[in-house]
Amino acid sequence: MNYRHGYHAGNFADVVKHIALVAILQHLKKKDAAFAVLDSHAGRGRYDLGGEEAGKTGEAKSGIARLSGLSGPMPEALATYLSLARQTHAYPGSPLIAAQLLRNQDRLTAIEKHPEEFAILKDVLAPFRGAAAENADGYARSLKLLPPPARRGLVLMDPPFESPGEFAALARGVREAYAKFATGILLAWYPVKSEAEAKAFTGEVLSGGIAKALVIDTRITAPEGRLGRAGLLVVNPPYGLAAAIQDAARVVANRLEAAITVQWVAGSE
Ligand SMILES: C[S@@+](CC[C@H](N)C(=O)[O-])C[C@H]1O[C@@H](n2cnc3c(N)ncnc32)[C@H](O)[C@@H]1O
To answer: Domains of the chain by range and CATH?
Structure first.
């Protein structure tokens, strides 16, 4: 477990992933009924972009830093994401973004395996009554927690991809989560190093009988040796989500000089 998200926090992939996360939570908040968020690979929750790790890669410079001058009217998911990022005085990871958007009735369980990252996560989430951090294996623990008592919500799976078996583990994780929580929204992040590998992954997930899913694909021109393309698979995207993400993506793509596509891979609206 050498991966530290601090080296990548606020990069192009984080920006798009976190805007999708905000858009999903905004959708869930349209109804008063409680929802649950399960973040299986949560990270530490808050990243100092002026710190050593971020400084070494400079990835945030081609990500969140490019959005710093944005102001005025903008798509709702983007506006909320930026206001959370600006309030944090550091870059907020997925569990902190989710925690900040919870209402009294909603719950977040954020799972992180690395002991040092977990210790920070626990402190970061401590002020939020509805949020809990757990030190465990994200795939195994999230399955135990599904379906959530609220019976509506989101499972985010964002593993580090430091081992060759991660695509298979993530595909199995999403399928097993779907089997236990077929009405839930599932959001899975993956690096795209080859089109064939990405297609094989989505194909493997969808062969589990999932009827509605979309893929958000983001590409930038990255320096040699750095990741330049990432995907997000959204299972059970709620009505209007594709449009909400597309609206935000248009603005972000301009600023990041990225190509962002939102495409249905199973079913449609
Ligand atoms: C890509 S980062 C998560 C970033 C976070 N979701 C965000 O968007 O801010 C992946 C995290 O998973 C953790 N991790 C690695 N293996 C794990 C496992 N088996 N279960 C849970 N967490 C794990 C790593 O320590 C790392 O913090």
So the answer is: 5-266 (3.40.50.150)
